[in-house]
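Consortium newsletter contribution from the modelling node. Members have asked for a concrete example of what our holo predictions look like. Here is one, prepared for the guanosine-5'-triphosphate complex that several groups have been discussing at recent meetings.
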Amino acid sequence: MVQINFARKEVSCKLVYYGPGMSGKTTNLQVIHQKAPQGAKGDLIAIATEGDRTLFFDFLPLDLGNVKGMSTKFQLYTVPGQVYYASTRKLVLQGADGVVFVADSQKKKLEENLESLKDLESTLKENGIDIRSFPVVIQWNKRDLPDAADVAWLEENINWLKAPTVEAVAARGDGVMTTLKASAKLVLDRINEKGSGISASTPLPTQPAKKEEPVVGIVNGANITRNYFLDYCQVQYRMTVQGDVDDFHKLGKKELLESLNGLVNHTLLMQEAKKSGISIDKKQLEAQLIQMIRKFGSREKFDKWMESRLLTMDNVKNEAVKNIVVAAMLKNSYPDLAAMMEPPVGEVSGYFESHKAAFPGGAEQADEKIKQILRNKKRRALVESMYSELRGKSKVSVFEDKL
Ligand SMILES: Nc1nc2c(ncn2[C@@H]2O[C@H](COP(=O)(O)OP(=O)(O)OP(=O)(O)O)[C@@H](O)[C@H]2O)c(=O)[nH]1
Ligand SMILES: [Mg+2]
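And here is the predicted structure:
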């Protein structure tokens, strides 16, 4: 979803590269990543299988610099094109401000192109968006192949949408930046037309920053606004609580305070991480995301969970970043972390004795499981003490009455 911060003159948009399998979506992002000037781009995150097919999504943050007086940032995503990843495509598409449809120009790919475009139309529709009034640019890719159809033929047979089109040979880098520019222009023009720019698919009630936004807390001079807090609270609720997603609105004062406490800790941690020069590289983020997915048993289950909890890809990415930062900061604070977390033998046997019913296979079989439980417990305690240490040396104010 477009996020506009008027006070800071910032606008941030999400562009999704859509299209059938192997049409060249990931290649587009790779080329943009290569061509964008240093400093304007973040790491390219690619979650792919061995054969380089996109498994989950690719992600590239891009800074377009100053456009019409606003500092403009784009988040680029690709979807996995393979037919059976429909639920992932739906998730990646959530909150999109524009789509680049990468079509394969080969004549034999007509059906696949059409099917994917239909799939895009219906997925947008599920999010309450009419494709006809949505910024879509079509890229005719693979123009270099001998079987590539004439552009006139492609226009007639595929482009029923009458979307603007660009020819490309993404593998050679041709047409990739032209496509990106055409799409960015379409998206930005629309924001200017609409004024507010909040798209219909916006999952959270984000509002443009008002002048006098109530502040619920101050952490070392950084304000936590009420809206920011409520967004955080809602996402945390969706991530962790089992109950109905909508019950978020029923949270009482006590729970809200707890959540604010969590946000204060999180803010402290991020400030400290920045001070300590902790940075996250792409391999770490990929590994963390894959680990998160594994916990669910399969990607399909993970997708289902995200869908049912109304979570977006950005939510999950932020959570992954948080997990990595916590781990890095723990290591910083406790250099002998691994040794500290290793439970003593007595503790393991004690746990077994008092939880015998849960381990019908006997003590030996239970050993590794119990160790893991105790390590996690120890880790949580260390995280807590790291937070209280951070609090001890910080200036934190919380305004309960503003919740
Ligand atoms: N000949 C030719 N090959 C291309 C072109 N663009 C991409 N390819 C190749 O097509 C194959 C698939 O490209 P990807 O970018 O991985 O395709 P994708 O759309 O991300 O595929 P999925 O992730 O499975 O949906 C790769 O081998 C690319 O090198 C092109 O313009 N011409
Ligand atoms: Mg791909």
